[in-house]
Amino acid sequence: MPYLEFLGHQIWFEEQGSGQPLLFLHNGGNDHRIWDHQVSHFARTQRVIVVDHLGYGNSDKPDIDYTLPLYTREVELIVNELDLAPVVLIGHCIGGAMAVNYTLQNPDKVRALIVFNIATETTLCAGPLQDVYRGFHGNPEARERFVDGFEGRMTREQTGAALAQQFGPGAAIEPEFAEHIHELWNRPGQMRSLYRNLACFDSFASLDRAERPGRFPPFLAFWGAANAILPPEGARDLLARLRPERVRMLEGCGHLGMREKPAEVNREIEDWLAALPARAAAGRSTG
Q1: Enclosing H/E stretch for 219
Q2: Domains in the chain, CATH or no CATH each
Q3: Which is the most buried residue in 65, 194, 240, 251, by most CB within 10 A?
Q4: What stretch of H or E contains 122?
């Protein structure tokens, strides 16, 4: 399997296809598999790169704090090492935060920004994970004892119920994906990394103060209208400050809209990418 070295650790990635590079960044707790339907679709015409972030999936899971600055450096490494610029960044949750933060720092290296359900301190605290963050922030001993109590011993019923919370009401969850998640969440270090990540969400608060600068690539945002993890009402101020050209509310979808309505999401992204040359030309004519 291909890996990149990052701060002395190994980060797993995979490439498919050729053409314009699209870098997909997953959410906390899961891995690159959330993007299955996008990878199979876009790899036919684009260069698609998926990654497992440090702490998750096939990547190393060191005993460190998982913060937004750390993950922004990860994006920088991937873009530079794989020579992706100008890249289309497509991120979800913490991956969305990584994509936005990297773009704020490197707007010239990003061709377009596409994000789902951006995780910030404010958007996280609008949902049920606020209690996890508040309870374990600054209390690593309690956090580690909590994870010790279940790591590697989650039943299928437990992983199935937790996964269902990431989908909208009545959504069909593919059995093979549910089985993958059960195995993933029982890997040593996977859940420990998630809870260390959640305990460090003060590091994501910088995005709650960020405003879109004058020089910024085209920006498309998705949000699950029935997202119980990061409720859409918690994102109003964030989206007003970042000012995406388009905000697409996915009706009936929860936190994993890219898996709940893949055809609709893929079509929206495809149309957005097809219109990029016209948007770039319009920007030059008004600049």
Answers
A1: strand 219-224
A2: 3-286 (3.40.50.1820)
A3: 194
A4: helix 121-125
Residues 6+ apart with CB under 8 A from 278: none
C-alpha to C-alpha distance for 70 and 175, rounded to whole angstroms: 33
What CA–CA distances, in Å, run from 147 to 57, 97, 153? 17, 25, 10
Sheet holding 3-6, edge to edge: 3-6, 9-16, 47-51, 21-25, 87-92, 110-116, 219-224, 246-250
Sequence-separated (6 or more) residues with CB below 8 Å from residue 37: 258, 259, 262, 265, 266
Task: Give the C-alpha separation, 181 to 282, whole Å.
Answer: 43
pLDDT digits 0-9 by tens, 16-59:
999 999 999 999 999 999 999 999 999 999 999 999 999 999 99
- State which H helix or E strand residue 196 sits in: helix 190-199
Q: Which residues of 167-198 are buried (b: 16+ CB within 10 A; e: fewer)?
A: bbeebebeeebeeebbebbbbebbbbbbbbbb
Q: How many residues does the chain have?
A: 287
Residue-wise pLDDT tens digits, 129-157 = 999 999 999 999 999 999 999 999 999 99
CA distances from 12 to 46, 47, 246 (A): 20, 17, 32
